[in-house]
Design goal:
Blueprint (H helix, E strand, L loop, with lengths): L4 E5 L10 H8 L3 E3 L10 H12 L6 E6 L1 H12 L6 E5 L15 H6 L14 E5 L8 H11 L2 E4 L17 H9 L2
Parallel strand pairs: 1-2, 1-3, 3-4, 4-5, 5-6
Length: about 180
């Protein structure tokens, strides 16, 4: 990648050593990551502010690479901020209307922290939404609706679960290819 900086936007689990985003960050040249929050971890406003703070430290073109709730953070960030973004890779977004397994925030707790309603209009930059056919946090149908509403290209990854180490996906080399597509 030329002068483009990749900004990684992790989900609610923040940085996990064997996660594809962490491994991607280790092999890219110009890459930054939104740092984990120390408090107010479910606050959408705090998450959006963290994205904005990190973007303010980057000059030149940016590609956002978000996973899970990080995708929702990017959608909310784009609804309130104006910085030009070259593109976004949005992987495995969760469905706020689905019932999530134990150990995940409830829809009520997310609603109380500003996550709902989710912006549904077209994103102001090119984007690729990568979806799974067996994600326990969102059906392919729900993710397809999100991608259509955001004006995003949808990439069906097949049965990759939530595209995380728990689903058997540490490294995800296809991410590099999708980022190169956005960097053209």
């Amino acid at each position: 990648m030329s002068e483009t900086t990749v900004l990684i936007v992790p989900g609610l689990r923040d940085h996990v050593p064997q996660h594809w985003q962490t491994l991607l960050q280790a092999r890219l040249g110009k890459v930054r990551s939104v740092p984990p929050l120390e408090e107010h971890k479910l606050s959408l406003a705090a998450r959006v502010d963290a994205i904005q703070r990190e973007l303010q430290t980057i000059s030149g073109p940016v590609i956002l690479v978000a996973h899970s709730a990080g995708v929702l953070m990017v959608a909310h960030w784009a609804a309130v901020h104006q910085r030009p973004i070259k593109g976004a890779l949005l992987a495995a977004p969760p469905d706020l209307e689905a019932s999530w397994p134990q150990g995940y925030p409830t829809s009520q707790s997310l609603r109380a922290n500003g996550w709902d309603p989710l912006p549904k209009g077209a994103l102001p930059f090119p984007s690729i939404v990568a979806a799974s056919t067996n994600d326990h946090l969102a059906s392919l149908q729900a993710v397809t609706r999100l991608a259509l509403g955001w004006g995003s290209e949808l990439v069906n990854l097949g049965a990759v679960g939530h595209l995380n180490p728990a689903a058997g996906y540490g490294d995800w080399p296809q991410a590099d290819e999708l980022i190169r597509t956005l960097d053209r």
